[in-house]
Design brief:
The complex is a heterodimer of chains A (180) and B (578).
Chain A: E1 2-10, H1 15-25, E2 29-37, E3 43-51, H2 54-66, E4 70-75, E5 81-92, H3 95-107, E6 111-115, E7 119-126, H4 128-138, E8 143-148, E9 152-155
Antiparallel strand pairs in A: 1-3, 1-4, 2-3, 5-7, 5-8, 5-9, 6-7
Chain B: E1 7-8, H1 9-19, E2 24-27, H2 34-40, E3 46-49, H3 53-67, E4 71-75, H4 79-82, H5 85-93, E5 98-104, H6 120-123, E6 130-134, H7 140-152, E7 158-164, H8 165-169, E8 171-172, H9 194-206, E9 210-214, H10 217-221, H11 224-234, E10 238-240, E11 255-258, H12 265-273, E12 276-280, H13 286-289, E13 300-305, E14 319-322, H14 325-332, H15 342-356, H16 371-381, E15 387-390, H17 394-402, E16 411-413, H18 423-433, E17 439-444, H19 445-451, H20 454-461, E18 466-471, H21 476-485, H22 500-507, E19 510-514, H23 520-529, E20 534-539
Parallel strand pairs in B: 2-3, 2-4, 4-5, 5-7, 6-7, 9-10, 9-12, 10-11, 12-13, 13-14, 15-16, 15-17, 17-18, 18-20, 19-20
Antiparallel strand pairs in B: 1-8
Helix pairs in contact in B: 1-2, 1-7, 3-5, 3-18, 12-15, 16-17, 16-23
Classes of the chains: A alpha+beta (180), B alpha/beta (578).
């Protein structure tokens, strides 16, 4: 079952590799992963959709938290959330079916963003189910090209967890006293 | 950037190491790390020149394990760096705090396949806690400070810092305070959950057949006294993992000995019969659990570990507590009730007696030399006070069974990774960390031949370690598996060795060969008193096997027991094994 994780990381080279490598070598199956800038400077925000059992997802979260570059991990779980995916779909749409395709797009509140001789490019934003449904509806006309961003997610309601300071309020670590 | 700073990047490396309390590093120079080596001569640092970078990593590992301090290894770019990989993986698996510093080609040619360029941060990503590529002198101090903090904090581990040549040659100011690391504090264990502690106490109170599973985490947390207090007050026996040996004393009345694949039969039986397991700083490795589905089927499980990603990973547990063991035990101890579990202890003693009569150690000398005898005698002759560094294979298991470790950090061995060739270099590192300790290498003829070039390092550095080579002419553990599970087809396991005594002579060290048990004590005495490193080759029984054994994938109680009579015409005796 798909689980949605939101991960804040430092925006530095190699973070995406670290996260992807962690998921690969621990055998956690990534359904989708998106990454982009956030409300905080020098930080990135990933939305990771994982296909796994609850217990496995908990382990994935704990592994993510061990990464030096990871600031915060939210497991959205059953909480009310907004999940959005964006798709660009080029569909075959000769004159004889063009109005039908346009109508479908309208039903899904999708926008036509390009018109070529025999095809239309449609942009659609929504939950993954909605996009799946639009893709299914367009398939009989002939889908020539399809690109999807993967899910970006956010919990509904107040900010999911308290602000994590970039500089943690730290007890000064002693350099000689070993924690081992 | 290249002008105006108070120090060169190369100098900043050594300034950092000194401030981190480092006085010894293990390494091998080369082009891309040359600026750092050039700057080193101005600093009060002991550099141990190795014969292969893998050994440098093992030395730093042994140094760290023996002392609890961070081990530091230095190598150049390309092959110098890739040679570290096995050592880093070994340290990662066994949670050794280590910092590896590698030179890298100039930042201007990064990514062009320049001479001796290798993407070492990419290569070592899965075998380090964290790694860094540093391309500016100004980043050296903050990155190195953070690297040390990361290596030591939480569950310790190796960190690699790859520094380009131009970053070493550039200049920057030394601003120690401004570089104080903080990122390692982001994911400290959560505050203790009082409810989890209460449930743990409830389980302990009601347990009739509890066992403590004592792991490596006890030493790293410094929780030895607390574990013993809990065990004694609640009358709970403890079984140890391989890396847990020495964490609590082997000769303690509540000590059962090692658990798992080559654990004693009574230990594994006790675990299978237990009604409560208290797992302290261990990770339910497959060598410890055997078949998971049938592992300790009657037991509730309390798991305490600093690494939350270990909780519930292999074995579902009833109470999982993520935290520093010392902190958790201090919270639990005031409420641990005094108990008497003599009935349970008596039951375990019964199983123990049954195993003891089969124990080779209790068998008379039949003229053959058995590795078990060598380990037992070595334990007696050194008063159990040596730091023993073992390689990987049969001798490693025999050592674990017959050398009884009372002191912390007295056994150093590659557990998780099982890295052959580890022992000699790790022992050199251990001896440099604790010059007052008597350090013994116990290695097989196979593993010793992987890294014996480091004998010359020991000589050059004036390091005395005593070496016991357990020579059976085979890659013994693999041969044992072939005998048991591959119908005796010995594919590629017979192995020739050089004349080890002559080899010792070539290195200018004391060397001796022992074929019978009668000659053992005098040889050990000669090695101990020899000036400098000394080597003894023990020619042992060629096709001896380590028993008991839980075959891989079998349940813990499905052990292959020791044969009732080991060799021909050996009488059984019933003396109590220690």
């Amino acid at each position: 079952m798909p689980h949605v994780l939101v991960v804040y990381t430092d925006d530095e080279p190699g973070v995406l590799t670290r996260v992807a490598s962690l998921f690969r070598r621990r055998g956690f199956n990534i359904h989708s992963l998106t990454v982009g800038p956030t409300e905080r400077p020098r930080q990135s925000r990933m939305t990771i959709v994982v296909d796994a059992e609850e217990a496995t997802v908990r382990l994935a979260v704990e592994h993510l938290k061990k990464q030096v570059s990871v600031l915060e991990v939210q497991q959205l779980g059953d909480r009310p959330k907004v999940v959005r995916d964006l798709a660009l779909i080029r569909v075959a749409a000769g004159l004889e079916v063009r109005s039908e395709v346009l109508q479908l797009a309208q039903v899904f509140r999708a926008n036509v963003v390009d018109i070529a001789g025999d095809s239309l490019a449609i942009e659609c934003t929504g939950g993954p189910d909605k996009i799946d449904a639009l893709v299914d509806a367009l398939r009989p006309f002939g889908i020539l090209e399809l690109g999807r961003t993967g899910a970006v997610a956010m919990a509904r309601g107040p900010r999911a967890s308290p602000e994590v300071p970039r500089r943690a309020p730290a007890p000064a670590p002693s350099n000689q006293a070993m924690s081992v | 950037m290249t002008t105006g700073g108070t120090h060169t990047g190369a100098q900043l490396i050594w300034e950092c190491l000194l401030r981190e309390g480092i006085s010894t590093v293990f390494g091998y120079p080369g082009g891309a790390i040359l600026p750092a080596y050039d700057a080193m001569v101005g600093y009060d640092i002991r550099h141990v020149l190795v014969r292969h970078e893998q050994s440098a990593a093992h030395m730093a590992d042994g140094y760290a394990r023996a002392s609890g301090r961070v081990g530091v290894v230095v190598a150049t770019s390309g092959p110098g760096a890739t040679n570290l990989v096995t050592g880093l993986a070994t340290a990662m698996m066994d949670s050794t705090p280590m910092v590896a510093i590698t030179g890298q080609v100039g930042s201007g040619v990064l990514g062009t396949d320049a001479f001796q360029e290798v993407d070492i941060t990419g290569i070592t990503l899965p075998v380090t806690k964290h790694n860094y590529l540093v391309t500016r002198a100004a980043d050296i101090v903050p990155v190195l400070r953070e690297a040390f903090a990361v290596a030591k904090s939480g569950r310790p581990g190796p960190v690699l810092v790859d520094i380009t040549k131009d970053a070493q040659q550039g200049r920057a100011d030394l601003d120690w305070e401004a570089a104080e690391p903080i990122r390692h504090l982001r994911h400290l264990p959560p505050p203790l959950d009082p409810e989890a502690l209460a449930r743990a106490l409830e389980l302990i109170r009601h347990a009739k057949r509890p066992i403590i599973l004592a792991g490596h985490g006890i030493q790293m947390s410094g929780a030895r006294a607390e574990v013993l207090t809990l065990a004694e007050r609640a009358d709970i026996p403890f079984a140890l993992t391989l890396l847990g040996l020495g964490a609590v004393p082997a000769t303690h009345p509540l000590s059962l000995g090692m658990m798992g694949m080559h654990g004693e039969a009574w230990v594994n039986k006790a675990i299978q019969e237990a009604d409560l397991l208290l797992a302290f700083g261990m990770r339910f490795d497959d060598r410890v659990t055997g078949k998971l589905k049938e592992y300790a089927p009657h037991a509730k499980k309390i798991h305490i570990d600093i690494d939350a990603s270990e909780l519930g990973k292999n074995v579902p547990v009833d109470v999982a507590i993520a935290g520093d063991l010392l902190t958790v035990l201090r919270a639990l101890l005031p409420d641990i009730p005094v108990a008497d579990r003599s009935k349970w202890l008596k039951q375990i003693r019964g199983w123990r007696g049954d195993s003891a009569v089969r124990d080779i150690k209790n068998l008379p000398d039949d003229g053959h030399l058995y590795a078990a005898h060598v380990m037992h005698d070595l334990w007696r002759l050194t008063g159990g006070n040596a730091v023993v560094v073992t390689d990987v294979g049969q001798h490693q298991m025999w050592e674990a069974q017959y050398y009884h470790h009372d002191a912390e950090r007295s056994l150093i061995t590659s557990g998780g990774a099982g890295t052959m060739g580890f022992a000699l270099p790790a022992a050199i590192g251990a001896k440099l960390a604790r010059p007052e300790a008597e350090v013994w290498v116990v290695a097989g003829d196979g593993g010793f031949q992987m890294t014996f070039a480091e004998l010359m390092t020991a000589v050059q550095e004036g390091v005395k370690v005593n070496i016991a080579i357990i020579n059976n002419g085979f890659l013994g553990m693999v041969r044992q598996w072939q005998a048991l599970f591959y119908e005796g087809r010995y594919a590629a396991t017979p192995i020739l060795s050089p004349d080890f005594v002559k080899l010792a002579g070539a290195f200018g060290i004391h060397g001796q060969r022992v074929d019978t048990r009668a000659d053992l004590a005098s040889a050990v005495a000669a090695a101990r008193t020899a000036e400098g490193t000394a080597l003894i080759e023990f020619r042992v029984e060629q096709e001896d096997s380590v028993y008991p054994m839980v075959p891989a994938g079998a349940a813990l109680h499905e052990m292959i027991r020791r044969p009732a009579t080991h060799a021909s015409a050996i009488a059984e005796t019933g003396s109590d094994p220690v």
